[in-house]
Amino acid sequence: MHLGIIANPHKNGSAATVLSLIDTLEKKGISTSLEDDTAKLIDGATGIPAPELAQQCDVVAVLGGDGTMLDAAHRIGPTDTPVAGINIGNLGFLTSCTDDELDIFADALLDLSYKVVPRILLKTTITHQDGSIEEDFAVNEITLSRGQTGRLISIDAFIDGALLNHYHADGLIVATPTGSTAYSLAAGGPLISPIASAFVVTPICPHSLTNRSLVLDDSSVVELTTAEESECPALYSIDGREVRELPRTSRIKVEKAGHKLHLIRLRDRSYFATLRQKLRWG
């Protein structure tokens, strides 16, 4: 087995965890390669770009937290290669284990005592007035928001071509089941099983208390535009990354992506156990 490693270079302990992981894997006969930025953490190491790393390896291990996992998914791009998150610190929603469990992780790879869980992604298509198109994908969500102004924005939302609502709110989130534990949850959205064939539209602080989250079948197509009466421009971001202004004449289409994120879950681990721990239930 050949394993690729991507680490968060800005997280304390990343270099030590990379070295410890390499040592643990090599003792068990598993070879490794490093991604470009990760290689800079290790003296004398060489690396390869993230997309090539995923193509050349059987599994990609991402060291950091859920934010590092989101960043790595975008840097790798579409791939069928399984991704395992190793959290430096506490266990996250997307990670497979912590940095104290490297031996357990290595043994799971050798014994094949893990499960690959595909997570649906969102494809986002932004069409501008001049006909130009921007495409991307979201692991967690795409968010329209009012930015730093104190005024509400007005958003027209359509489902499969039919008007859903004229929202007057601080913003609107379209989230995957994976993203239902992130910004959408903070905005009052529901928790959705990560393997559900659905996604959710959640308004952020809507002017009307009757505006609630709506769970949709993942075959649905959502279209969003800034309404003419909006008091200020809308800003949009995908997975909390770069924030950009959405021109009033532009339209965002959100639908299920053609590829999935394949996450590794150790067989003795449960998503619901992580949910209880992170949300402090019971």
Automatic annotation (TrEMBL):
Cofactor needs: a divalent metal cation
Top-level taxon in the UniProt lineage: Bacteria
InterPro entries: ATP-NAD_kinase_N (IPR017438), ATP-NAD_kinase_PpnK-typ_C (IPR017437), NAD/diacylglycerol_kinase_sf (IPR016064), NADK (IPR002504)
Tagged with keyword NAD: yes
GO molecular function: kinase activity
EC number from the UniProt entry: 2.7.1.23
Compartment(s) where it occurs, according to its Swiss-Prot or TrEMBL record: Cytoplasm
SUPFAM superfamilies, sorted: NAD kinase/diacylglycerol kinase-like
NAD in keyword set: yes
Residues the entry annotates as binding NAD(+): D66, G67, N140, E141, R151, H168, D170
Keyword terms of this UniProt record: ATP-binding, Cytoplasm, Kinase, NAD, NADP, Nucleotide-binding, Transferase
Residues forming the catalytic site: D66 (proton acceptor)
Chief location bin: cytoplasm
Enzymatic class: transferase
Reactions this protein catalyses: NAD(+) + ATP = ADP + NADP(+) + H(+)
Function text: Involved in the regulation of the intracellular balance of NAD and NADP, and is a key enzyme in the biosynthesis of NADP. Catalyzes specifically the phosphorylation on 2'-hydroxyl of the adenosine moiety of NAD to yield NADP.
Sequence similarity: Belongs to the NAD kinase family.
The protein, known as: NAD kinase
Gene field: nadK
